[in-house]
UniProtKB/TrEMBL annotation:
Belongs to the BI1 family. The lineage of its organism: Eukaryota, Fungi, Dikarya, Ascomycota, Pezizomycotina. It is found in: Membrane. It comes from Trematosphaeria pertusa. This is Bax inhibitor family protein. One of its GO terms (cellular component) is mitochondrial inner membrane.
Length: 340
């Protein structure tokens, strides 16, 4: 209907062209043509020479929208259930492979105690809630035009304000004790909103790319978290130092386009690969380290050495998710551009 309203004379012009010349002066009148000449037998009933069904068919054929997508073909696209089964099989095989390679030595205490399981589940719940807040806030900001203003701003200003906002709210959340839950959750929400403000331009990407990147990120982190939860106690806590050095290299490679001239194409290519694939490896390792750190803190909290604080634990896992997700989006976007 909206298409017809933009072209108010389209219907009459189409019916006029489809009807025979002998019947045009009797059965049809276009408002954008010359006035109809008076005829003595104008109101006499006459049988039209073209049926209404044919007119409707010709009208639909003429004004079919060119931007409509092709109909879904189950043969070419594959059955949805079959694709889900294949995806689940690939995920299960990957999980078993990672578990076999990195988790040959399982726990010796008969499995995860109940207090560790509750603390880990509480941490994962806060992680999922934080990711949800970031996604909804980023979407709302993007729809209100925040992404355009952010992309047109000075990159150094965005970097400085973003770092100050992110680090300030993160350390404010961590420094607040769990008993002061109002201030703690307010600072935690501010941290998530700050991340949403920085990540809202991702919604310029195609929604299918964002959905696939989110699915791949969840699968990657889920499999690594399973390995960390079922491995021996404190087996991967030694990775903290090497991962910190790796993330420093990845961060410097991410800042390279701001200081390296555009003529150094080979250098920029290497720094981009380090930022993408090196970042995936580093933050995958951080996921393994953070899961084992959560279980270690659960044991310390059970002894009364530290307070239970699932909000602080979730911040590390949120940062792991966001860094892996951003790289997944860029890898999928580059892969799509190479196919064109």
């Amino acid at each position: 209907m909206a298409f017809i309203l933009r072209r108010p004379f389209a219907l009459t012009a189409t019916l006029r062209t489809t009807a025979p010349k002998s019947a045009q002066s009797v059965t049809l009148r276009a408002f954008h043509n010359t006035p109809l000449k008076p005829q003595p037998n104008f109101f006499s009933p006459k049988t039209p020479s073209i049926s209404t069904s044919q007119n409707v068919l010709r009208f639909r054929t003429t004004f079919r929208r060119s931007y409509q997508q092709a109909a879904y073909n189950p043969v070419s696209h594959g059955d949805l259930r079959q694709r889900l089964i294949y995806g689940a099989g690939i995920f299960g095989a990957t999980l078993l492979g990672i578990n076999f390679i990195f988790n040959r030595e399982t726990r010796e205490d008969g499995g995860m105690p109940d207090f560790e399981r509750r603390y880990l589940n509480d941490t994962f719940m806060h992680t999922g809630l934080g990711i949800g807040i970031i996604g909804m806030a980023a979407r709302a900001l993007h729809m209100n035009g925040w992404s355009f203003r952010l992309m047109s701003a000075n990159p150094w200003l965005v970097l400085g304000v973003g770092l100050v906002g992110s680090i300030g709210t993160m350390y404010g959340t961590m420094a607040t004790r769990p008993e002061n839950y109002v201030q703690k959750y307010a600072l935690w929400t501010a941290f998530n909103v700050t991340q949403a403000m920085l990540l809202s331009p991702l919604f310029f990407m195609h929604p299918a790319i964002l959905a696939r990147a989110g699915l791949y990120t969840a699968g990657m982190m889920g499999s690594i978290a399973f390995v960390g939860a079922t491995a021996k106690q404190e087996k991967y806590l030694y990775l903290g130092g090497p991962l910190l050095a790796g993330v420093a290299i990845v961060a410097l490679s991410g800042l390279a386009p701001l200081v390296v001239p555009a003529t150094a194409a080979r250098t920029l290519m290497w720094t981009e690969n380090i930022w993408l694939y090196g970042g995936l490896a580093v933050f995958g390792g951080f996921t393994l380290y953070d899961v084992q750190k959560v279980l270690h803190h659960a044991r310390m909290a059970e002894r009364g050495m530290i307070p239970k604080d699932a909000v602080n634990e979730s911040i590390s896992l949120e940062l792991d998710f966001l860094n892996i997700f951003i790289r997944m989006v860029q890898i999928l976007a580059m892969s799509q551009n190479r196919r064109k």
